[in-house]
Amino acid sequence: MQTIINWVAQADIDAGVRQEGLTTAERQELTRLRRENRQLKTERDILSHAAAWFARETGAVSSKDTDS
Question: If we measure between CA atoms, which residue out of 4, 27, 5, 23 comes closest to residue 14?
Answer without folding.
Answer: 23
